[in-house]
Design a protein that fits this description.
Pfam families: PNPOx_N (PF01243). With 162 residues, the protein is of the alpha+beta class. It contains four helices and nine strands, in the order ααββββαββαβββ. Helix 1 crosses helix 2. The protein is globular, with a radius of gyration of 16 Å.
């Protein structure tokens, strides 16, 4: 499983763009899952990095988490409203795994409360770990478009389009 530190070591450019866009939107991203009828679903989500892992937490019993429980494939996209993409754009994709480990869930909730004041310590919540299987980012220059691509175990590569 590719942890966050391993990902950032192999794909520092994509990780930097993801983190910049993630912070700029108050942690909001768009999560793509596969519905039971096979069509895609896009849902808002606030993913978090904790203990060297990217986590997908949220309200329990939602359709997006039902999708992930049935088919773990996902794509996470930084929320972008700028058609010129002046601050970049990133996508991470992979597999999500439902976390039932009570001690880990407690540590996550304690950490979330300490960092943000949002209290899930005595609440039920959806909680999925992620295994990153690829990523990409886009940056727009004056006369070009840079597309950075990463696959596990490989350094990121940049494709420039004019």
């Amino acid at each position: 499983m590719t942890g966050w530190t391993e990902f950032t070591g192999q794909a520092p450019r994509i990780a930097a763009i993801f983190l910049r866009r993630h912070r700029a939107t108050g942690n909001l991203c768009l999560l793509a899952t596969i519905r039971s009828d096979g069509f895609p679903r896009i849902s808002p989500l606030e993913p978090l990095i904790f203990e060297d892992q990217l986590w997908l937490p949220g309200m329990p019993h939602t359709t997006k988490f039902a999708d992930l429980a049935r088919d773990p494939r996902f794509c996470l996209h930084t929320a972008t409203a700028d058609p010129k993409v002046t601050d970049g754009d990133a996508k991470l994709w992979g597999l999500a795994h439902d976390v039932t480990d009570a001690a880990l869930r407690r540590r996550f909730a304690e950490n979330l409360y300490a960092e943000t004041g949002f209290d899930l310590r005595n609440e039920e919540f959806g909680f999925f770990s992620t295994e990153l299987t690829g990523a990409s980012a886009v940056e727009v220059g004056d006369d070009h478009l840079d597309i950075t691509i990463w696959n596990p175990g490989q350094p990121e590569r940049v494709v420039r389009k004019h």
